[in-house]
Amino acid sequence: MFLYNIITFLLFILFLTRPCLASPCPGEPISEDSISPWNIDISRNGPLPQGNGTPLIGKNIYLEKCAACHGASGDGFMDIYPALRGGIGSLATKTPLRTVGSFWPSPESVLDYVRRAMPLNAPQSLNADDLYSVVSYLLYINNIIPQDFPLNEKTISSVKMPNRNGFIDTGEENGKITFPYKEVQDRLGNCFRKK
């Protein structure tokens, strides 16, 4: 029995270390080529993917890839998949509806989320033109942009989201995050104290 336990232990160790033999282990340097597939974040400060889309094109892509979960009109599905439109002005009420139009602070944050996580059954499968098209359609059904608005890396910064002032800026654009104590105290009153 002792020999059996030793062999099992050695096989277990071999099994655990095998992934390290094929790829870098924790603490070992990793190449830029290994990082680049994961480094796809999008922010207001760039970099933005190069592409172009309009709500008219985005509607067709949305109906093909998104409507099964979020509904043909973006109203959600049976409280399982969230609504993507409506709710503007509802966040401070007893029945807030968090949608693309009511909650998200910037169009870049919507672009980032859709790029990373949608469609649910095939995340990161949208090319840049499809990505801009779907996001432009979401902005259109929330009455944020007109139907003929060309959304791309140059025009996206001109889009003003309804909840753009609903978030506190942490100063990430400088590469370091600083907590905005003064702004939080102004919003919350004296109940917030810096420690």
From TrEMBL:
<dbReference type="Pfam" id="PF00034">
    <property type="entry name" value="Cytochrom_C"/>
</dbReference>
<dbReference type="InterPro" id="IPR009056">
    <property type="entry name" value="Cyt_c-like_dom"/>
</dbReference>
<keyword id="KW-0408">Iron</keyword>
<feature type="domain" description="Cytochrome c">
    <location>
        <begin position="53"/>
        <end position="142"/>
    </location>
</feature>
<dbReference type="InterPro" id="IPR051459">
    <property type="entry name" value="Cytochrome_c-type_DH"/>
</dbReference>
<keyword id="KW-0732">Signal</keyword>
<keyword id="KW-0349">Heme</keyword>
<protein>
    <submittedName>
        <fullName>Cytochrome c</fullName>
    </submittedName>
</protein>
<keyword id="KW-0479">Metal-binding</keyword>
<dbReference type="InterPro" id="IPR036909">
    <property type="entry name" value="Cyt_c-like_dom_sf"/>
</dbReference>
<feature type="signal peptide">
    <location>
        <begin position="1"/>
        <end position="22"/>
    </location>
</feature>
